[in-house]
Amino acid sequence: MSRRRATALPRGEGGAAEAKPRAPLRFGDDPLLWAAWLYYEDELTQSEIASVMGISRPTVIAYLAEAREQGIVNISINGDRFRALSLARQLSAHFGLKDCLVIPAEGGTASLIERLGRAGAQGLGWHLRAGDMIGIGWGRTMLAVAEAAGDSGLSDLTVMPATGAMTADLSYAPELCATRLAQNLSARMIPVSSPAILSDPGMRDGLLQEPVLAAQLSNLTRLDMVLLGLSPLRPGSTVEASGFLTTPEENRDNYRNAVGAIAGRFYDAAGKTVPGSLDGRTIGIDLPGLLRVPTRIGVCGGFDKVQAILGALRGELVNVLVTDSATAEGILRADGIEVQRQSLTRRPPTLPGRDRDEPPVMAGMQPVKKILNDPRDAVNEAIEGMLLAFPQYLRPIGGSLRSLARAHPAPSGKVGLVIGGGAGHEPMFLGYVGPGLADAAAIGNVFSSPPPDRILDCTRQADGGAGVLHVFGNYTGDTMNFEMAAEMAAAEGIAVRSVITTDDVASSPASDRAARRGTAGNAFVFKIAGAACDRMLSLDECERIAGKANAHTYSMGAGLSACSLPETGRPSFLLGPDEIELGVGIHGEPGVMRADLMTADGIADRIIETLIEDASLGAGARIALLLNTLGSTPMMELAIVNRRIHKRLAARKIEVVQSWLGDYCTSLDMAGLSVSMLVLDEELQDFLQHPCDSIALTFCPDA
């Protein structure tokens, strides 16, 4: 399958134009692709294809021949375009969408937002009709859609923002997105002469009585379609940057059950409205009003947006979706749907004795053998074993196996360091408790955040009178529970600061660093933070240095097989024998992209090139390097990858000051590895080389 775009043959033979239906959005403006799919994948006859496409049978034959000539069809499919196409079809079928367009996860030098913007503009053009009234939300992706839109040649179009104006100084505010879209469509623009958020409900009620604003807002009930971005609820998200959530308390207390926001309205995992303090102060379309709009186009992509998109789909808040293939796979898997792997071949006859609809038996679904007793006791029994093996490093706090402190208390007057997260990543968290590192660690269930009370116990234990620094990964449960524990500690007079780790480059683009996950790069941040605390620096200074370490850390993983949870004993996702997942997380989730299996050098090149580009490294840079097994990959294979990475770095004249190799942050028994890179300056190198001693990491510079 070629990556080239197919060009259409003349409409009809002998110069006669044929009136034919428009292809579904997922095929793009590509009749060759449409015809090839109907013939090879849907198994329609040439006559049936002619009827569906509204063309003659000779035209169908010509389309199929040209599809072969242009490389669209090679009997079997191997291109990103058909993978995206099958995902679009599966999403449409599962969620009952009017239309769906999925673009490849990777696409040259253009950013994901730029490519989504072009695809969103294409989706808009697909459904646009003369005389339509179009609403548009706001955000970077909406601005990209507006900028990519072109003059359709349709008359009497009208554009308006779906909400009032933003108080924040944003280049992608609603009024700016609407203005740009109207300009590019040669459409009339209707403004909304009000802020999106008013200071109190009384002011909103008064404004709604104003004839000018009332007339403007009445147009929201006449929208034919609306373009919308979907925002997750996390620090730095569009909905927060736009000024909708002014305080963390507003987010946590009023919208703790929300998974996303659309046009400034919050919804839960089922797509239902989450009521809150903003309801009586917001000017713009609400969710019931949104559901009355015939065509609701959601344009959104990125790993961190999966739950927000899934909630919107479940609640039918969007009925046309434009996204990328990695996000599409994440949505389907998050809803418990096995992603179909398409092959563009005429299917063989059904095997005797098997129903056509019966799914094939898939390799890899057999239970994985584990050395366990009762799986429900696995975490506690493992911690008991660790305490028996390493009494010189760890002791339980108040008899709890899930709240652990360093064996020998730190001196008073020192800033305490508390870390924590779910079990299943050993030696992560409990393995980084000790002198020069953390003072305490809170442990949750497998891949689950520890509850606030355990974090509070650790915070009390670590407090030596100078305050406590919390360092934890960027996951919803960890963020919420550590924040709650910090508030409870503050009520007891303990000053707490927090640093959230965001090192995983595959989970979000560099322009949205705050959305990234915390993975094996945690080890570098724990090391730097522990050194700062051990040197008796102030709480503010420890927070600054730990935050700097996080900002200088970059990680990426690759998985050869999924992990299996103790309770299920089965892989969390399936990989073919010749497939690899790039950008895997550490909680059993698949990667952001699936690719053909590579050699060790190929994996090393793919990862280190991504990290170098993301960190903008040039000749003369100095780094610390960490190669980490995700669970079952042996040291031999890590060392082979390490050899290649060092060679590539040397060619770029990038100096490796320290190189760590081993198990630092695992994902149970996953086969694969991750590579983390800490970009050093004099200050960070000094803290990195400070002595420490723990189960996972011991550093003695004078030894």
UniProtKB/TrEMBL annotation:
Q: What is this protein called?
A: 3,4-dihydroxy-2-butanone kinase
Q: Where is the DhaK domain?
A: 374-697
Q: Does the keyword Methyltransferase apply?
A: no
GO BP terms = glycerol catabolic process
Please verify whether the record's keywords include Kinase: yes
PROSITE patterns linked to this entry: DHAK
Q: What are the entry keywords?
A: Kinase, Transferase
- Region of interest (Disordered), residue spans: 1-22
Please give one Gene Ontology molecular function term for this protein. Answer: carbohydrate binding
A GO cellular component annotation here is: cytosol
**What lineage is this protein's organism placed in?**
Bacteria, Pseudomonadati, Pseudomonadota, Alphaproteobacteria, Rhodobacterales
